[in-house]
Write the structure tokens for this entry.
Amino acid sequence: KCFSLICRRLADNYNYNDRVVPLVRRRSQLEKLTLYLRIRERSTFIDGSHLHNDILIHLSQLQSFTFYVSTENRTKNIVLEDCHIFSLPFEFEHLTRVANKFPSITFNYVTCLEVNDLVPFKHEFFVRITRAFPVLKNLNIMNLVPQNNWYFNNNNNHSYTIIEYPHLVSLDITFVHTDYIEQFLMETKTYLPRLNELKVCYAGLDIVTENFTRDVTRRNCTNIKQLITEDRLVYPQEVFLYFPLL
């Protein structure tokens, strides 16, 4: 009487309408249902009314429903729009495509997070992230828009809060503007005591670390055991001096 369907990969609307919905409806005696779905290419977003009308009214014995459903659609202007609906408390470990605006709640179970937006992520955004996701272990950031704020570009300004990610072990900043590489590697902005895997664009890393000589970005690199760059296969000696555990 329990059924769980977890699908972290994007599924198209055909698979959702013609496979997922009928599959769940056939289990009319369900008492506990868990769904984690990411759907793309729908004409409308999946919301609470849709879940009720297409699924829940067919499950008369249902007592517990835990869910996360995101819908991703591209507009005529090729802009990606998202809609996320989920039950509270949020009980899943993975959460994707979080943007600047997200609810002021605590996600106590999320260990893997992806943040992505078409507007800059300010320092305050990352302060909110570390508070909202207290057990975060894997973070993937995608944002090619510069932070473009003197607050960040003035390296002598120490008035803002140093953000600590006490559990973060893996950081992916491959598809970002160099501002975000600096945001996470500068010890005056971020402290990463357990980081051991870094995915990053080599050219951006070289710029931010000033050819692997900059002291203020050295501390957050000392525990890294795996450096993954798509555009560099053989590292010069200064990289190994800067990342002593490689």
